[in-house]
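Data availability (excerpt). All sequences and predicted token strings are deposited with the supplementary files. A representative entry, Bifunctional adenosylcobalamin biosynthesis protein, is shown inline so that the format can be inspected without opening the archive.
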Amino acid sequence: MSVLFVIGGARSGKSRHAQTRIEALPGRLAFIATGQAFDTEMEARIARHRADRGPRWKTVEAPIDLPAAIDGAARHADALLVDCLTLWLSNLMLANHDVETGIEKLCGALKVCPVPVTLVANEVGMGIVPENALARRFRDEAGRLNQRIAAVADEVVLVAAGLPLSMKRPG
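Structure token line:
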């Protein structure tokens, strides 16, 4: 198992860093997308991201069942990039799925994945306390999710202003 967790704020460069790291690996690559295009802005964002990836990439959409997508993609790719865990968490919460069960299944899938996996997430706990209960719950759940993934990961990199900072090194 080899799990890289790349975390950072919005527009910090975390996705670019994760993609660059995984593209340095040989073989077939799978991009597991958790975002959904509910409006034209998100459609354009998804199209831009697809255009940034070359022919080595196969895209798998997994807004809810991320553990199954990781298992399936690992059968046909030599490395996986999941972008992003924060949107996946939003999807789980808005669909009234059990977040703790989802995180448990995700951690289990990462522990047995036979190919390298890179996961991207937003750090949402460095700002002000949100004013409504749902936003506070989301912030709290995201913090717990990020801690759980960091514990499972072999390497954790924080990206701020486009600069990577190693937080946990392999080995």
